[in-house]
Amino acid sequence: VATNSGNCLVSDESVLVGLPSNIIDALALVRKASRWMFTLFLSGACLTVPSILLAPLSVYTRWASLPLTILTFVAALTTTVAAIVASAMFLIFREAVRSAADTVNIGAEIGSKMFAFMWIASGAAILGWLIQVGECCCCASRRDVKTGRRKGSKKAYAVRAMGIVDEAGAGHEREKPRARMRWINSSE
Question: What is the mean pLDDT of residues 158-181?
Answer without folding.
Answer: 48
